[in-house]
Structure formats: structure tokens, C-alpha cells
Structure prediction request, 1728 residues.
Amino acid sequence: MKRILALLLAAVLTVSSGLTAYAAENSSSAAQEEEKKPGKGKSSGRENSLEQRLAAGQTGQVDVSIGAAMILESPVEFRVELKDAQNKSSVGTITLGGNGFDNSRVSFEGLAAGQYTLTVSAEGFAAWTQNLTVEDRACAVNLTTGFLGKMNYAEGGLHPGVLLIGDVNGDGKTDEEDRTALVNIIAGGMDGNEGLVGDLNGDGVVDLVDLEYFSKGYGVTSDTAAWVEEFVPVGLIAPSAGTNTKVEGSLEDLLKGRDSVTVAPESGGGISKDNPVSLNFEFSGSGNALMTDGIIIGTPRENPVKDAVVDIAYTDENGVEQTVSVPVESGVMHLLAASDVRADRDASGNIMIYLGTQVAVKKVTFTILGMHNNNNLAEISKVEFVNGMEQRIPEPEMDIPENLTATAGSRRISLSWDPCVNITGYEVQISQGDVKETVPAAYNGIEITSFQGKELVNYQQYQVRVQSVNGAWRSGYGPEISVEPKPAGKPDTPDGVSASGRYRSIAVSWKKSKDALTYNLFYKESSAGEYQKVSEISDTGYVLDGLKDLTEYTVYVTAVNELGESGPSLAAAAVTTDANPAVMPKYNLINVGEAGQAGAHIIDAKMWGTMQDSPLDTQAGTAWGTVDHDAVSCYVKGSWDDGGYNPVHAPLNSTNGLYYEFDKAYKIDTIAFHDVTSRDTGLFYAKARYWDESGNAVDLSGLSMGQRKDADGRIYYVLKLAAPVEAKKFQFGLARYQKGGNITVSEVYFYYYDTLMDEIMSLYEDDLHTVLRPDVTQAVIDALRERINTIDPVSGEYHPDRALLEKELQTAEAILNDTGLSGTVRIHNGITTNDVGRGFGGLNAWQPIGVTAAAGEEIMVYVGHSTKKTGQDTELQLIATQYHAESGGVATTAASLKVGANKVTVPKIGSTTGVEGGGALYIQYSGNGLNGEYAVRVSGGAQVPVLDLYQVKDAAERLKRAEAYVAALEEYVGRMEQTHGEVHGSAGPAQVNYAYDEQNCILGASDILLDTMMLSLPAKQMLAGAGSGTTQQKAQTLVNSMQAMEDMMYLFYQHKGLNDNASEALNRIPRGHLNIRYQRMFAGAFMYAAGNHIGIEWGSAPGMTGASSVVADADGRWQSGRYFGWGIAHEIGHCINQGTYAVAEITNNYFAVLAQAQDNNDSVRFKYEEVYKKVTSGAKGRASNVFTQLGMYWQLHLAYDRGYNYKTYENYEEQLAGLFFARVDTYARDSSKAPAPGGVKLTLAGDRDQDLMRLGCAAAEKNILAFFERWGMTPDEATRSYAKQFAEETRAIYYANDNARVYALQGAGSALGAGGETEAVGDGVTAQVSSQNPNQVDFALSAKNIPEGDVLGYEIVRCMYSGGQVIRETAGFATGNTFSDRVFSNNRVVWYEVTVIDKYLNRSAVKVLPPVKIGDDGSMDKTFWTVAAEGLTADPIQGSGTDNSPCEPEEAAPETRLLDQDGTTAYRATVKDSAAIVLEFNKKLTVAGFKYTGVTGLAGVSYEIQVRSGDSWIKAAEGSFGQGDGDSQTVYFSNSDKKYVSTYETNAVRLVLNAPGGSVISIGELDVLGVTGDNVEFEQTLDGTAAIGRLAEEYRYGTEEGDVIPAGSVLFTGTYKGNPAYNVVVLYDENGNIVGGTAADGSLMAQQTILADVPDEGQIQNVSEGTWLYWIEPEQQWTPAGRVRAELYRVNNALTNEGQRLVSDSMFVDVPAELPDITLSGGSVPQP
Prediction:
């Protein structure tokens, strides 16, 4: 093989290899009479057969390809039109869009030979037109959406056509009018500019990025026409499946590049030599159309073809038909008789058949004999018959990340992959189904903890993949992997367990437990027996079948995963039902009777539905089966509404309800009925009417329907009339609460009006039953008691309300004997649900009444009103709660109350058993507070202490009430266990009949009512929190704590812009209050916030009554005290978060930090160091840490609030002026209040981020979008439009901190001012590359011309060149005098701009530091490596004890010093024999070199470096150590010529030392090098100057005639490391201009070449050190001046320059004023 010099010159690179892939679904024909509609892609004209087209000469084809040369964030549709000479057109469409470099095609087939015009147009692009000559061959036109960097766009050159972006006004051109229009849009928004296209890059925003895009297509003089390539028309190829071959997919689409196919043996079994599969491709026609010189067959990298044969029939140049069989076998290179024909594979596994010359192919058969990994099927991704195989460029190095691995943790995924070179970072895509999210990564690893703003969920599959990034370039994603996070422990205990009784079954449900795979359900009869277990339940519900009738069962649930079983849930209980009907009371029953007989006194029964199983109903329309005392017979209405919701009509034309007529008029006020199930079927509404003796119909109002249960839990309903009526006829209709289902009624009972209830209720003069009538005596009471204890002689039953009436008589006796009653509670009409919405919830309007009641207990609630009469409706509801409840079972509305006595059965909330059921009762008022006052008293339940401080402003009165409350608590708590035994013992309600448990006994309920808060906590813990001492001392502690709570809520509402002095209700403090309740915690919770309460547990309750208020001075500066804990303020924040911009776990913490802050950095929960990392990172999206993200909101408070943290304002206008978030929340509630100085009104988009940015600008009355962008947010066009009417904020508010604000509030003013012109960066500021880490730059920082105390920190901006332009990125913010910047772009020149930021947040003038070059020797992370020494002895490392580790440390192996990252801690050893050192990586790594540091005692000794391959060692490099002590060298693994970098994948490297026995050696550090990045430098002369001069004599560098550098050319020379097939060098001067300039057509005046050897195998490899030449020929008359610098680019495709990115650059070097002569020598060039 000859050694030749290869030239790759960017200016003459072409866009395509001659291959045409039909990747798009668009295909069209020119044989069309009229223009098609875009998007169809096929002609609507007649379809010609292949024979007809051949005969007619219609075999031509035009493929149009459009590739994205720039990122298009949104889809762009390109219209592609091809017109023939007769103006007949065919149209197709191509859509590009999204990130990356897409490519799509449209194909026009069956074309006649002739002249055609191709036009391409799209919104935002200038129209592109080119004339084409179509012959019998196919041709390809490749276009790109912009110029490809460093390509020569000379007229007629080998380059793609260019679509110019920037047609803003839609006139088909890109000119000055478009530029003016775009600038106007950027300055003034889209208002008045409708119809223009300003968003050129499609990111939803018109900004400077669009202007940059515009510049790429403006003022272009380069050639935009496309070089047209030719290929074999696909229409001439007929594909088919071979023998025993089953094809899935379309072979036609395979040829056109639209889709892949899979092939498998039709007979079954695997693919083998005995069971092959094959594909046939037959060619029609003759002549040039069929000429080809190669075939490419694509197979996937995951399962490539292993063995195959390609049989080719063709006609040679003499017209003789020939055949050749080309074997394809992995790892074998076959020598064929036709030596020009060969098979090869590229790096992707594609099969490439080289035919050696152009031949006319007739038929190709591809037979597959075996696969690498899966023999069941083979996937074929492409088949192409191409030209120019010998000119193909080697497979590009895409820098696609490889070996992506994932380690799944609990709700987290740790990813790692092999590092890539020549990149600036990575993008990780995580997805579930169609939902995708992309996160940036600076390193080759990242930990994912969230997806779509929520934490990852264990046991859910996530798909992840990675691509590398360099500016706008993307490598493309590597293979996708699936990861499933799994928990680290057992699942949480299930909560919310509920049980419901059914017929012989129990339905059990529960909430989903975190980290649970399955559940176990345990159940037993409550009264006895062992628990039975149901295992492996996958759902959150289960029905237990086959149980006993009318039996209570207790259940509990556990959660299970592979790590174990959770603890048991709370137990729940339910009673099974039976098939028997509900047993309704018969006391005072009118329609008595025997089963199967019509009830007494009813002479007619009618219905408007159907009767079922009713023997008595023999005539249509009768309803005797509803009063026959037989539950089997029933009435059914096939509707959810039988008149209970919609009107009930008169009997003669009625369609709804049940109608009855009595034998005479009866005085009634109560009716009972049950349906066919005797269960809760959702009946909710009822309407009724009656007819009196005279036949007058009266509609009844005030009718109530209540649900009752018999002794076995069966349900029936009671209709209660507002007053008794004399009814001769009666009709009622029912309806369900929800639409759906039928109405059924089995039995109806009518009752005689019972005077006993009214007589007892009439003992009192007032509605509250606190005053007896004057004539009530003990004898009257005794007579009534005798009557309630008398059995009804007909039914044999006592009065159904016997127990309740007895309580009434006891109340009367208590008044008569003056022994005291339960207290009357006045209802505060300022606490109400009747309030305006303020954009947040979390409140309730409950008012405590000092009563706790058991579930199932019947009580009387008496309501009095200042003007309303007995029986009238009220705006009060009775709220029943469950004490120590789970979060989902706190409260229910027990009754809507009327004035007077209200009989209420306290409902059971949930089905939890094993703990007492019931809890405190509350009144909820829903009125407007203007119509009188209410008072309430309860008879029943148990009285508990309550403290009411609502609207009590007088300090003495507050203390007095607190003393009374504490005294009551002291007495009550002391006897609570005794009271439990008295009222909850065996004689008490069943739901509280448990052994005393101080944490679960409902007698523990107690409440404190404040203006903005209610505490509902255990009485014992309320008292405990008040501390020790006297009653008065405890009361004072309690008052102080309540004042702290009120002060804290007042502070919070101040920051929400709420004030009782505001003129509008919307901006006043809510009329409801927050409610901190004693609740049972769900798994993992310490506290929680739910819909209308905050839950805390037993241990947290004392903290609510023992706190002290914050003391602040008049300006709001903290002096002492603390508002409770972080947790309570955090949960309050959840409740009062403004919904417009609320982000859970972030914005609610604003209130938490507000309650804790003490005007210094150390008192806030987040770390400002992390805040500064975020605002200087440039990363999009929120910070991953919620506390860091909180810093964004806190900085706005620091920047714009006028006082210290605790400053509040009584005056509402001053409050708005002084508090930033008061304005934000005010404008969120009413956007019309927001300022609009430029006439653009604030509108809220419903997007939290956009709304916050708009509200922030409104509140600041500044354009602060730069602040939000620093925090990773992206404003949309509407947000920018609103913001730009304000002046831009000049301060660096993203660096604000607490200490700085205090300093600024106290200071004399900024020495820097707002102009940014003061020189304040110190003269001694330096930036130097770290001696230990070539990727790190270390800074020494100082300031001048500014008081030392004024300095907040230093903003450090990293600068780089790219394409002659300066790219700036904020590297960090330093608050000290040192800083280190880790740069992840290797071999790049960087320089820094440093700015002082003072504590007033103003900026100094920028100081520019001298440039430095970042290095990269490829040293790898050694964290998990181990080291072993062979044939060497050394003393162990002996440690010493310290105060922190007093015991003597263990000895350490001395060889560990070789990996300790410190070259000064040497490993010293004595050589025995066969000395070697082995570095174990403990995983596979790709290695490319070795580095030793500080070697002594081995002068001139040879060494060998080996890499492990399986069980053996392979030599990778050899050499000798230097002669001097302290030798340090880097050794690259290379080929024998030492020109190419070799890499090995291995898990260990071995250094063999050929040193004599007894030698004493010392080595400071050993490193193994990975693949390093490309590098470019100028060649240096002996005196250290750059090798720049005039070429003394011409130099030939290639075989072509023009491959000569003329003598007299100005020559620049340098070295590079990289791959010459994919590298391009460009020089720039100090002004950013390309050295040598450009011609009028935009082409480079200078020329350049990269020199490299081409090895035997013909593939150009990575070069460790090569040479580049860049010259300007003499006729160009370039005048040397100033300084120049070099940039090295890398591309993915050397023909198209696709994927071009800057990978290295050099420092500036001086150009000699007098250019010296240069002579080039070396290299062997074959002669033409």
C-alpha cells in the first residue's frame, strides 16, 4: 500500500453521496393536468403501467430532499411544486419541525424526458426555484434550510440548494423590508403586525434569536442552486419475496426508504443455511437508467445479518450477461474471482456490496443464512442501488452516547453512559408513552427524581435515552432503555379503609399505598374467631362473599411488596344485611293489617308505574301492594325521578308518585316507607300534597325526608311534615340524588299525629328550651313521663323517640329545679360560608358549640333567632366530625336546622372500628350576617371546654376568658377518664363503648376560636402546651400563643394583599378561618393540609398553645421570638396559596420562610450558594430542589418590599405599596387593578409560569423577565408584550440575599450607581488554569473604588468564540475572593468578564481578563478503582488517631497512593522480580492512553502497558522512562506509525516494569486516559513564534492538477488532534473576520487542507497529532496585520457538513509584520 496524503477541503464538500432514500410518504407524478392540493404527494392523473411508461419514455424521477440546517422548534410545511414545459404541475409537501436536523423527501415519478421547473416555498422562507433537465434516469435535489458552515457555495459547485429564511412579509423574498418588519415586531410586538411572520425559529416568541435566524438568509450573494445527482429510478425495480419467505411490511416502501420490513421463514423455525430466507429485486428497462456500481443493505445494529449471499445478474460493458455471487460472513473477507467485487460492512452493520465499475444490473437476490442474535426473523431497513461507492466517506463519528446504564432506586433513577468528546453536554429524554421530558446533563451521568413536575413513581416503567450536545448541534439519541424505580423498603401502611355491609357480603376499599404491589385483607367476625386472610389483591378494593346474615365483621389491610409487608391499617367494621325488609315502627300506625291484606282505613291506592309480585293489584293503576304488609310486593318506576324533584301532578292526569285515599280525614304529620332493598339507594328528594275533607288540594312545603335504621341496620325513610294536616287523600313522589336507576317502594306506613312530642316541646317558652312555661310543675312532667313509658296497645311498641323525649323531660326538670343546663352559644354572623372567592381554599366556617357526641347518638339541637319564628328555615347547618380521624373522613353535614327543636341522629363517619366513633359538633352559618342573630343549645352528647376569642380585642377580656378556659381544662382533663366510664361505659352509645384511650376518646375534643384560625385539638395537649405554673400563668402563656397565631396569620394575609380596611370584599380577610385539627397521619406524614383543615398529631398539638409572638421594631426588623415551626406555616401555605401561580411544595413555603426569617441568610431554609448556581446555570425549568426554587420567590420579596421581613401596614394602600406579593395576589384576584402604562392590559393565561411573570412585572412595575429567565422560565410572546411597557430592571435582583438587603436598608447608597460604569473590579483579579485539573479555571478576586462592605459578590461570565462570534455564558457568582470554574468544553480558549455586584444589586463596569486555554488529557474518574502491586514490596501506610477518631486507624495498602489524586504522595517500593502494577476499573471503560507522574528510580528502564482482554493481557504501548528524576509522561495507545489513536474496551490496565531486582522506585500518581477531544494549535518556530510566513517554493499536497500551494502564498501552519475526515480549520482575525476574506459570492478567499495518512483499510482514523495548512494565494494580495486565531470544526457527514460544531480553538497569535519564508517538506504524494 502506498502512503498518500488525503485532503478534505470544506469549501468543496458535497451534500449527498448519490444515495436517494424515499423517507417521506409524499410521492407525486408530473403527468397531471391540474395542480394537486398540498400534502397528498401522488398525482390524481391516470396510473401508467411500467411497460407503458417504458414505452412512452416516462421513467424519469425527481426526488426532492429538505434537510434542516438550523433548529426549527415548530413544524414548517414546505410546498414542493414541479412544472413541466407545458406548465402542468405536481405538488407535494414536506414538513420539518422540532429539535434536531430532520430530513424529509418528496418523490415525483413517471416523468417524461424534458425541461422542468422546481419551486419550493414555505411560510417564513423565500421562494426557491431551479430548472431541471430530466432524462431516463432519476435525479435528486438536496436542499437545506440554510447554509452549511465552511462549504463552498460557488456557482455550479457541489453543494445543496439553500432555502433562505427571513421572508417576514410573505412576498417571496428576503430583503430590507423584511428586516425592518422584523425589528418592528421585536420592538413593538405583534399588535398591528398581524399577517407577518416574525417567529422564524418557531419557539413561540419573537426576539433576538429570530433576528439571528434572519441574518442567515439576508443579503446572501452565494449560490443557492442545488447540485443535481442521479441514481437508478426506483420505479424500474420490482421487489418480491423469495422461496419460503414471509415478509411483514411493504417491499415497495422499503425501496423508497419509507419503512423497514421483517422477513422470516414461511415454514417456521429459525433462519439458517438449511432454512434460508431471500428477497428478489428485478430490474426493467435498459440503458443508463439501470447503471449502478454498488448495493447497500441496511440491517439493525442490535441484530445484524451474520451470514448471507448476494447473487447479482448483470450485463457487462460488452453486452454479455454475467452473474456473480458475493458471500457475506461476519469476520471473514472473501477473495472473489472478480477481484473488483467485494462485500464489506460499515460501523452500523450495514452490508455494502462494491461492484467495482458501472454495470447494468438485471436481477439481485439477497439470501440470508443466519442472524447474529435472533434467528427467528431478520429486519431489513433499506436496500439501495447506488453509484459512487468508492467515493463514499467513512461512517461519521456522531458522538452518540453509548452503554447507557440505569440503576433504579426508590422514586429515582441514576443514569450513566460512556463519556463523549467534542461536546458541551448531554440531553436526557425520559418518557412514558407519548409524554416526554428532556433534562440537560453536564456530565456523563445524572439522577432523575421527577417527571412532569412530580416525583417518580415506583413500579412504573420509564423510558430513557441520551444524546450529546454542542451548541445547536445534537448527536441524535442512542438506544432507549426501560427503567423501573423500586422502593428501598416496605410499602406504606394503607389508610382510608372503609367497609360497607351488603347482602351476606362486605365491600372493603382503601387508598392506594405508596410502593405497594399487592394487598392482604384480613377479616373476622367481630365478636369472636381468628382473622382470615385474602392475599395478593392487586386493586384497592375487595368484596368478601359468603358471609353470615346480620353479622358484624372487622377488617384490616396490609400492603405488600417484594421487600415485605406493611403494618396493619386501622380496622373497619360493617354488618352484613339479609334479605328481610326493614322493620318500621308501628306505634300509632293508621294502616294496620295482616300480611297480604290491604291496610286498614285505606280505600284507594294508585300509582303511575308498575306493580311487581302484588296479588292484590289485579287492576291497572292500583298500588295495593304498597300497603299490604308484604315486602315482596312492590311499586317500581323506571326513572330516577318519580315526582320528588319535578312536579307531582293531579291524580286524574298524573304521571308520577303514589296516591292514597283514606276512609276519612286523618290528622297526620309522619309517613314511613322502605324500598325493595332496605338499603341506601340514594333517595334524597320528596314532594307531597294532600286533599282535605272538602276535596281541596294543598301542596306541602317544608317537607323533610330522613333516613332511619332498624335494630339490624336495615334502612327505611321517614317523611316529616312541617305541621300536621287533616288529610283525606295523600300523594307523594320521590327522586334520587343522582340521575339513574329506578324508584321502588315496598311498604308505606301512615301514622296518627302524635301529640306527645308537641306537648313535651311546648313545656318551654323559648326556642332554645331554657325557660319553662309558668304552669309547668313536677306533676305535669311526671304525667308526660308516664305517657312516654306506656306501650301502644295496638302495636305493642313504645314511642320510637322514647329516649329523646326522656332527655327533654330531664331538661325541664333541670330548669324547674334550677340545677343548670348546657350553655347557649351565640353564633357569630361574621363567620360564614357566604363569602367571595379569593383564589384559594383551605378554610371552613365551623363554629364550636362545646359538645362532643357519639356516632349514632340522638340529640336535640335548639335554635333561637332574634326575629324568626319557630319552624322557619335557618342558615345554619350542624356539622358532625370524627375525632382523631383520617384525612378523608373528618366531617359531614348532620342536619340543616330550623328555628326551635331539631332532632338529629349523629352520623357515623366512615367505618373504622376499634376506636371511638364521633367527635365535636359545630355550627356552620351560611348567611350574609345582616338578618338578625342566632343562638344554639344542644341537649345530648357531652360538654367540653371551648375558648372563644373571636373578635375579642380587649386584652383583659382575652385573659379573663383564657383563665376560665384553663381552669375548665384543669378540672375536665383531670376527670376525663372517670367521665368516660360514666358516659361511654356499657350503658353508653355502642360507638364509644371502648376501654379508655386518652388519644382516641372523643371526650378529648376541645376548640379555641380566633379571628382567622380555629384550633381543634386534644384538651390534654392544649393544657400541656400552656406549660406549668398557676392557672393565671398558663392562661397568659395561652393568650401569648394565640396572639402569635393571629399575628402570623395577619402577616401572611398582609403578603396576600388582604386587609379588613380594604374597600372591596375581594381584598378583605376571609370570613372563614383556617382550622388546625387533631388528625390521624397517613403513612409518611408529619402534618398535612387537606381541603378545609390542617392535620397534626398528638405530639405536635402542645406546640400550638405554648408559642410566643415575634417581636419586631417599627420597621419590621426581627428582634426576638419565633412563629411556631416550619411545618405549620408550610401547611398554612398550602391552604392559602394563590391558585393562579401556586406550585405545591414551593410557593407555600414562602409563608414558612416568612414565619422563620430573621433578616439574615442563615435563617432561611434554602442555601444561597445553590440559588446562585441555579441563576448562573442557564438551565431551563425549575430547580430540582424545592427549597432552592423557593429562593426565586423570596428574592422578589427582598428586592421590592420596602421594609424588613415583619413590616406590616394597617393602611391598605400603604400595604399594597410596601409589599410585593400583596400586589401580586391583588392583581391575581382582579387583573384590572394591574398597571398598564403602555396600554397593554394584564391578562392571565391559566399557565402558572406565564401568569407569575406577568404578575411579577405588574407588581414591580418593571420589566423583570431577565430575572425569571435566570430562574429557567421562558416568557411567551404575550408575556413579553405585557412586560415591555415597563422600564427594564437594571439591578441584578437574582443575586439578592437577606444580608445584602439589611445592608442596603441601613446603608448610605450605592457607590456603583445604576449605570454600570464604575471601575470596581480589582487590579489583582486573575484567572488561571488549575495545575491539578486542566478543565478548571481558578480565580483570585478583589474590588476597588468601592467600600469593602458594599461588595456582595462577583459575577463571572465565560466567553468563547464560535464562528468568529463571541458566545457568553454566566459561569457563576462568587461571594468570596476565590472561585473555580469547571469547563466541560475541552481544548477551547476561554476568557472571562468579571463584574462587581454590590449589596444594592447594582453592577460595576465589566473587566475582561486575558484568555486561557482549557486542556483535556482524558484523565478518568478513579473513585471506584482498585490497585494491586506485583513483584514489589513496600511498607504499609500507618495512620494516627485524632480527637474525632481516637482509636488507631487500620493500616492502608501503600499502592493506594498511586490513585489518591496527589502526585506528591509517592508510592515507594523495592522491586523483587517481574514487577507490575495493575489498575482495576471494576467496570468496562474505553481507554486510549496512560499517564505517569513523578517517577524516580526508573531512569531509562523500559516499560510495557497492557490492557486486559478476557483472561489475557494485550500490549497497548511500550517505551522507556526518562533519564531524570520526577519523570512524568503521557502515552497514547497508537499504531506502529504512531499516527492514529487506538482505543481499547477493558476493565483493567497493567504497567509492566522491566526494572532489575533490588531497585528502589517511586511513582507519584498513575492515570488512565479516555478518548480526548479534538485540538487545534499553531505550529511554533524555534523561537516560540507562530509558524506564519510566505511559502518559498510551491508545495504539492495531492494528486489533482490544482493540488498545489503556489510559491509566495501567505501560509499558516499548525497541528491538530482529531479525525481529518471530519475536521475543518478556519482562521479569524481580531475583528471576527475570516482570514483572507470572502469573495463576492460568499466563498472563502483562503484555502485550507488537513493532512493525514490513509491506512491500508482505507478508513481515515483519529489522529493524535496531524498537520493543517491554511494559505492565501499571492494574487489575493492579503496584507498581514494584527493577530489571528484558529477554530477547528467537526462534522457528522463530511459530504454535507451536517452536524457541524466547533470543537477546539487556539489562542491568538501575532502575525509577523515581516513575513519570513517557509519551506514545506515531507510526505509522499503519488504523481498524476
The longest helix spans residues 1031-1055. The chain has a mean pLDDT of 86. The chain has 21 helices and 96 strands.
